[in-house]
Amino acid sequence: MSTTKKSVTKRVATGTSAILAAMMLVVGCSTQEAETSDPVNTPAATEQNKPEAEAGNETEQFVKLSWYMPKPIDNMKDQEAVEAEANKIIKEQLNAELHLNLIDNAGWEDKMKLISAAGEPYDIVFTTFASNRINDNVQKGAFLPLDELLEKYGQNILAKVDPRAWKAVTYKGKIMAIPAQTPYSPAGAHVFKKDMVEKYGFDYKSVKSIQDLEPFLAEIKKNEPDMIPLLATANGTASGITLYDYTTITPGISYSEKDGSIVKILDVPQNKENYKTIHEFYKKGYIAKDAAIKTDYLAEAKSGKYAVMRDSGGYTEDGSKSTATYGFPTVETLSGYPTISTNSMTSAASAISATSKNPERAMMLLNLIWGDKYLLNTLAYGVEGKNYTFKSGTAQDNDPTIEATSGSEQTWAIWHNWLGPLWDQWDSNWNSTAALQAMKANNDNGQASGILGFIFNSEPVKNEIAQVSAIQKESTPILTTGSMTDFEQYYTDLQQRMVDAGMDKILAEAQKQFDAWKAENS
Amino acid sequence: MTTEAATLPKPKATPGKLFIHLIFIVMCAACIFPFLVIIGTSVQSEGDIVKYGYSVIPKNFTFDAYRVILHDPTMLLRSYGVTILTTVVGSLVGMWVTTTYAYAISRKDYRLRSFLAFFIFFTMLFHGGMVPSYILMVKWLGLKNNILALILPYLISGWFVMLMKGFLQTIPDALIESAKIDGASELRIFAQIVLPISKPALATLGLFFALQYWNDWWLTLLYVEKDPLIKLQYLLIRVLKNMEYLNSAEAIEYGLVKPGMMVPSLSARMAMCILAAGPMLLVFPLFQKFFVQGLTVGSIKG
Amino acid sequence: MLRMMKKNAGLSMLALPGFLLIIIFNYVPLYGLLLPFKSYRYNLGIWNSPWVGFENFGFLFRGDVLYRVLRNTLLYNLTFIVLGTTLSVIVALLLYELSRRFVKAYQTILFIPYFISWVVAGFAFRSLFDMEYGVINRLLMTMGEEPILWYSEPKYWPYIIVIAAVWKGLGYSSVIYYAALMGIDSEYYDAAKIDGASKLRQAFSISVPIIKPMIVMLVILQIGSICYSDFGLFYNVTLNSSLLYSTTDVIDTFVYRSLIDLGDIGMASAAGFFQSIVGFCLVLATNTIVKKINPENSLF
Known about the structure:
heterotrimer; A: alpha+beta; 4-stranded mixed sheet; 14% strand; B: MetI-like fold; 66% helix; globular; disordered N terminus
């Protein structure tokens, strides 16, 4: 069949008309989309017009509330039972019912983006600075401002949240999320294998910096052929590699707590010194040759092959935390306390969606959780008998002690800080009251960063950030394991590549935003 | 209605044939070895993998990983159920829809063939992305947590249509013409002549469809939030992602890894892989039955 | 005239269900093609979000990485197309010579890699390449050679990746060609045998020419995806070792690294748009050329 000119034009014609027809269909449907997704007229504005806003009629209508959260553990079989128990209280107090939408970690980020994009109605959502990012959601208009709701219905919350933490969630003068009670600046610690330390009589308490580890590492290398002295992987290395007196504004750009300047972190001499030391360690064989491809930090630590590791999330004087996590006797030395930054205060938070149909009730529910200890601990631990048992005290007591199921029998768990008030947690095998008190004391005594409350808006430089991000992901495994061939050259090259990728532009933008913020807040 | 072609003469063990067998044996070894490593790791005890490395025959034999996964057999069984259902329904409906479309565009005398071919080819390279598809499925069609959401999007795709078109193009024109002369409708020609002689093509398409539906986890991730509808591959991805997440430095830092918490181990990953892939390998031979030599022209003439 | 309309109507009715499905599930969401050019705001929807032109494409074209990833992507894909097609056809031809039992067995085994996800496969490959415990290094050491740090040396990886890709896909693609061979009228072979043609001759003069349309079509289709890569392969098999990036970094892994923290939907769809446009133009060009040579083999 030869291709005649006529049939060519016919084909083009039919082709174009079909595409046009498809596009008309598309336009029709998408104008519908634009209409149905809520315009700027947010529920907050209409809130004043709702009759329920007036005192007294608030809880007249029965409503169902939804809360989106990542799945804390794989097996949440008892969801129905736990919700039933919790809803007894919620129904009685608020004439409402809660349903938790637990999303797998695998799909959490994508799902929340899609749900927000589709404008699906839901009430409360879990959000942090890193996961279902607060920043992104605020910029894209997914969250509701909470100031008025907090004032009207959130008395418990206002009373219990660390006053400094509000700064971390305030955007353009409006509070956009409720920061949870959580350890703000978990201390960093060097962790040593107890038997090794005892064998070589190493004074681990005297270790102040990474460089101080050298003698011990040398000993291990010389005398223990089956062990690797220092654990370093693509995503974790010796404690103290991050400088404690520099607070990150955006990856690569940090604020110096000492002199208030904003710098490129690679340019800080101490940082370079630290990475150089790690490289020396690598050269001397203290770090595994293929460390850069290891990504299972916990598994490697648990194997017991390493003599020196970093902390498992916090510092305990007697090494009990790392012993429990890693599974063999360890001792710990404090390596430093990071300052409390915006990010550390938003490692767990709750927000109310702009698409929520019952924001007042949602706030009331949050307030109830922050006030009613039984409700909180029910949602967290589960149902008595099924998921936990009382070791001492009862549900009526203020501070009973319980034993919660764990391991393979665990069929329910929500971390208290995901719900909000961690300090209201019942004493248990999850966290003892003593441990909680220590965390709280840490927080209270912790040093707040000079830029607490400053939130960097990445939109103006997002292209540069993308380019820088690509380079960072490429270089981090090599820096943390010291596996480059020539340190000086690699480091200088890296600095140059960052500049080429637009790091200076990001620095300038950060400085600009910081100066503006400082002016507003002095 | 098929007439099996005269079978090839019984193969003799010629040196040429032996050489061919040798090649295949080497290739198969390369395919089986990694699989053996996976099986071996799935029955290896967790600490050993980090301590001793990889082995096909583990030092310490344990079925722990399988126990972890199968401790909730109802979940796994339901997952198999959903997966089988969507695979069977999706493949059958998809095969019909795809083959009819492909047949139409394979016919040289069909005026719209170029247009329709381009129409579907365009969709192979250009799609609206996650967000509009999600809005369509969830908002406009209301199919969240609905089994249809796991079937509909894949019923017809450019790749399969083009594949079938390639197969169906080889059907001799004479065959169709003679049927037309007899006054048969297009549908009859399609169903009674085209389909029966396209067995290898249909078997291939059916196999690929089955694989597509069996292995899919993306649709589950997007559209399913209720456990009963979760498909098998998604369970696997879930385990993998959970494990990656819980072993990351962040999780340790923020104390998300609590003592006693079940962190799925490396061996559990491997066990899941075996459990997910296994059935398909058993089903595979079913499709191979249809790879039969086509009709001889002689059987049509006269 | 009436007969021609009737004939087209019949075929159109057959194609109708497919056509409707394509419209609903593929064309309706197409307005998403606007995303790369917009600064997406959830509450405004895609349609009303502000227009930003080519801003979202910026991160792709500035900087030094594009040359590297584009080169890698294209070279790998060309190799996959050429090598993959050749090997698949050869395997199909070889299988064709064997009896049914063997074909069933070999095909099933060759298919196993297809089922192994890249995450798991990457781990399995590590059993070969691991610095300490890998089979290859252990062999080298027993032979007195120095072990190779496989995951730190970029120069081996083009070979490793190509072998891995062939390993995974050979079973799948050879089935297609095998099925195509099945459709060949055995009378052709009978006639050739009578003329005394060898098996090899038969393969080249009968089998390959008859399945040529299929081969050409599949090649054109693969050209369409020439800017896309199998993410799992390049990310997991290499264990995402950054020391290897000079030979293993492709567009998809680069985009992933750039955007995973930002999470910007607009930029992610911009990258995809770029990949699609390049592939699309190449397909149009190739298809036109093919049509000039032999219209039977063209895609549309």
